[in-house]
Structures are given as C-alpha cells and as structure tokens.
Specification:
Length: 205
C-alpha cells in the first residue's frame, strides 16, 4: 500500500468544506486520512460534525496566548503530534504567522470564495456582487506569507445573472468550492502537484 497522507483541517465555523473533503476521500479512495480537525472557536458547528464522524478534534482560542506565533506553535504541536503532511484551511478565520507558513512550507492549502487575485479578504462574494462582475468563482491555493496570495491550484467559475443576490451568489460559489477543494486535496495526496514559483503544475492534467 502506498503512502497515506495525513491531513489536518483548520476551521472556525460550519465546516461544509471540511465535510466535502472528508466525503471525497472516502468516495474516491484518496490515499489520505483526516488525522485532526482543529478550531480556534470552541463553538464551531463543524467540530461537532467532525466528532460525529469519529475524527479527532482539538479547539482552543488565541486569547490565552501572548502572540500570534505562540498560538500558531501550539496549533502546530497538535498537528505534528498527528504527523500531519497537509494543512487545509477551511473557513479558518485567523491570519497565520510567518512561522507557521514556513513550518509547513508548500503544505498549506486554502479555499477562497473569489477568482483570485480579485477580491481578497473578507466577504469576497459580496465584494464581487457589489462590483457588478458577470463571472465570479472560487480558488484553491497554496498559502504563502501574504493573504490570499499563494500559488493557485484550481479555480472554478460561476455566472452572475440579473436575478442573483449576494446570498445566491455565495451559495452558487459554495457548491463549486465543494467540488474543487476536495479535488485539490486529492491531487496533492496522489503526488500530482508541482510548485514552481507562482505556478502549480498538475501531472497528467
Ligand atoms: C467558505 O466560503 C470559504 O471559501 C471561506 O469561508 C467559508 C467557509 O465555509 N474561506 P465552511 O465553514 O467551509 O462551510
């Protein structure tokens, strides 16, 4: 049997992307295991869902730490205990320290609900809607030291019509998120991604 990649998923909220990754691993025989789900929010609904699925969880707030780096080191300790190979940010609403990004160099992924590099930061779907764009979408990318900036792995688009609202757009984008995030994780776990500067090459695309 080949190498099984250990995944740590970091969440702050409902965890729908987390669930889509867990489900995809099962249904597509991805050589991976979600070894831990961590949340900075002890009340994140996604934590309960992970527990129901028998996945180990950990949760603590940054408030008891004196710096971002110290909090990140405590998180990394939990992940490293589990031998995590890949860290997936799935609605994790905290910026990561340079220390954390370097510790997991090219091994952190994020999903962002816009076609990067447009509309970085919070409420990306509403930013796109308010701008009046006709095509919106989502991006899975590797995480570097700048916000919503690292090398792009996959993107998917949605069209915006007259009837759309910011909320309906967010729903349409979320459906696409649930398609491309698990796929990017699968590509990583099957060793099919190569990063060269800003470019991510997919083997046998
Ligand atoms: C998603 O829209 C994701 O793109 C953004 O935060 C949201 C998380 O949703 N980063 P969920 O917790 O995965 O349901």
């Amino acid at each position: 049997m080949g190498d099984i990649k250990k995944i740590g998923i970091l969440i702050s909220g409902r965890g729908s992307n987390m669930l889509s990754i867990i489900e995809h691993i099962k249904t597509h025989d991805v050589p991976a295991e979600v070894a831990i789900v961590f949340s900075n929010n002890e009340n994140a609904p996604g934590l309960e869902k992970a527990k129901e699925l028998g996945i180990d969880t950990a949760a603590f707030s940054h408030k008891q730490f004196s710096s971002r780096k110290e909090f990140d080191q405590a998180v990394a300790e939990r992940l490293d205990e589990k031998g995590v190979d890949l860290v997936c940010l799935a609605g994790f609403m905290r910026l990561l320290s340079k220390w954390f990004v370097r510790h997991y160099h090219n091994r952190i992924m994020n999903i962002h609900p816009s076609l990067l590099p447009a509309f970085t930061g919070l409420d990306a779907q509403k930013q796109a809607y308010d701008w009046g764009v006709k095509v919106a979408g989502c991006t899975v990318h590797f995480v570097d030291e700048k916000l919503d900036h690292g090398p792009i792995i996959l993107q998917e688009t949605v069209n915006i019509s007259n009837n759309d609202t910011a909320d309906s757009l967010a729903e349409k984008i979320l459906e696409k998120e649930h398609e491309i995030y698990p796929l990017a994780v699968e590509l990583f776990c099957r060793g099919r991604l190569t990063i060269d500067g800003r470019k991510v090459y997919i083997e046998n695309e």
